[in-house]
Predict the structure.
Amino acid sequence: MTRVRDGGKSRSTAACQVNGHSGVSRGVQFGAGADRLTARVAAPGRGATGALQVRLDSPKGRIVGVLPVRATGGAGTWQEQSVKLLHTVTGAHDVYVVAAGGAKTAAIDWLTFRK
């Protein structure tokens, strides 16, 4: 299991607020591989609020996963949401989370990659 957190910063700062931009974690070690993503997110609104694309090595890099984000009941209400990755990821990579859709897709507390 590989857990990625926003550089030790609080949930409400830096790349945690993802709304049409990207956040990055550099040098994430996937070891023998990961094929599942779980993210702890907070998303306002109702229903689907957009999606988080997980890309490797650049904001326009290969998409290895897309997490459709469901509303959690508010910006301060956190839930874990999961998806199977499109490809098994191995080795070390910079991981970019790119928001797609919605005025404010989600706030991210952490991401976990596992097999």
